Amino acid sequence: MSERFPMTPAGHAAMKSQLHKLxxxxxxxxxxxIEVARGHGDLSENADYSAAKDEQGLIEAKIRDLxxxxxxxxxxxxxxxxxxxxxxxxxxxxxDSDSGETHTYAIVGEHEADIxxxxxxxxxPLARALIGKEPGDSVTVQSPKGRRDYEVTKVExxxxxxxxxxxx
Length: 168
Known about the structure:
Blueprint: E1 5-7, H1 9-38, H2 47-72, E2 73-75, E3 91-96, E4 102-108, E5 119-121, H3 125-130, E6 138-143, E7 146-156
């Protein structure tokens, strides 16, 4: 049995939406492309047919991947959580001990992470360092820019807004 993994309701909804699109839009368009390419004659030398069949394989693989992820997802709603300790779903504000800069990150599932939107994966080094910490606690993280020291300044339980599309 595979391990379940956490996901926010927004991430789950986005993944379901992507699966629906693959099954009900992309798969149908690809099927039509295969039929059109078949009409062009000899399949052994038909580049359109080969490309459409390759695309069919990719679509089906994405569908299987998303279905597996949705089956194993453990949907956790951050707005129903509470407490001062950082855990999955928390929105954490940290202060860089050297620069004084503050950053706010929501700790989300692996497939929902988007650093530009302030979402870090539960498996990211920073998130792993923050788990279990409370406001006032310090953490040290090895980053591409070297060792960074942060202080946890706030832990909140906010609704995570959906991404347009979840990357499989």
